[in-house]
Amino acid sequence: MNHFAYHDRDLCCESVPLRALADAVGTPAYVYSRAALLDAFTAYDRAFGDVPHLICYAVKANANLGVLGTLARAGAGADIVSGGELYRALRAGIPPRKIIFSGVGKTRDEMRDALKTEVLMFNVESAGELRALDEVAREMGVRAPVALRVNPDVDPETHPYISTGLRTAKFGVPIADALDVYAEAARLGGIEVVGVQMHIGSQLVKVTPVADGLVRLASLVGRLRERRVRVGMVDVGGGLGIRYRDEAPPTQTEYARTLLPVLRELGVTVLVEPGRSIVGNAGLLLTRVLYRKETVDKKFVIVDAAMNDLIRPALYNAYHAIEPVDRARLAGPRETVDIVGPICESGDFLAKDREMARVEEGDLLAVMSAGAYAFAMASNYNTRPRAAEVLVEGNRYTIVRRRETYEDLVAGETAL
Ligand code: LLP
Question: 295: which of 47, 158, 224, 315 is 20 to 30 A away, CA to CA?
Answer without folding.
Answer: 315
